[in-house]
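Our preliminary data section would be incomplete without showing what the modeling component actually yields. Below, a chain of 342 amino acids is followed by its predicted structure, encoded as tokens that our downstream tools consume directly.
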Amino acid sequence: MIVRARSPLRLGIAGGGTDISPYSDKFGGCVLNATIDMYANCTIELLEPQDGITFIAQDINNTFHSPLLNTLALEGDLLLHKAVYNRIIRDFNDNKPLPVKVYTYSDAPPGSGLGSSSTMVVTIISAYQQLLNLPLGEYDIARLAYEIERVDCDLSGGRQDQYATTFGGFNFMEFFENERVIVNPLRIRQSIINELESQIVLFFTGVSRSSAKIIDDQVKTTASDNKKPLEAMHEVKHLAYSMKECLLKSNIDGMAQLLQEAWNAKKSTSDSISTPQIESIEDKVLSAGAKSIKISGAGGGGFMMLFVDPIRRLDVERALKELDGHIQPFRFTQQGTQSWTV
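Predicted structure:
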């Protein structure tokens, strides 16, 4: 038996960082995001017991093999693959081991700022759901993925990525204490989506980064006596509501202006969010005609999102081509995680 799954990566448009505890627990967080046609992919083959367990991460050229076990040690490479397997076996397979070969690859590297790690976790869960016919809804899959990353693997991060890739499309998400999450799908007219696609340029800076230090800085912000970073986080949240309103009212110019305000506020929440390289890119593209920029995800590197007047788009793209990194073509997608049997 062979099953496959794929889940879309996401662009964080506004509010990123407010979905991280303890900020979201104490003040409530909100995020505006949308999924794009870049994916995390998974194939699972059900094998004979003597074949054991094999994980093959094709994009990072990493392989793990083990005899048939019901629990894999959470250490070494392919930690997320092991953690998903453990939870599926424990919670949904009566603790009976599964002889499987799991292939995965992502269209974006780890540390890209597009939620690639969380998207991969959701994709692997989705494939197991198809393999075992598990009765899991969207909130169940996203919450399970969150627990695997944040609790089982003790990895720093927020909540938006798991929900964005599971639900798909444009969503305004609200985060509260006791892990409560509300996903509000937004109905966006195709003409607005067309205009967004014509105005947004996605640029990979060429630098993958670990988000852990940035996230740890933002965690400290909530309890710190220094009020400036906390006030900046409140501003990031406030601007997410304003950005949603602009999107629903087709005010793309307003979104572009708010994006720059949100980026400036986000930089005030941690010294690690921007770097000299990012500042240099920002100066260059704004001089070439870009209206605003922000780093997608926690910051420090990965993908950069630019708003550009379509008339100036080629000028900005020429400026970007003089830099390290590459322009990434994309389209918005309305579908969340999907799985099927071959």
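The chain is about 40% helix and 25% strand. Residues 190-327 form a domain with the Alpha-Beta Plaits fold (CATH 3.30.70.890). Preliminary results of this kind motivate Aim 1 of the renewal.
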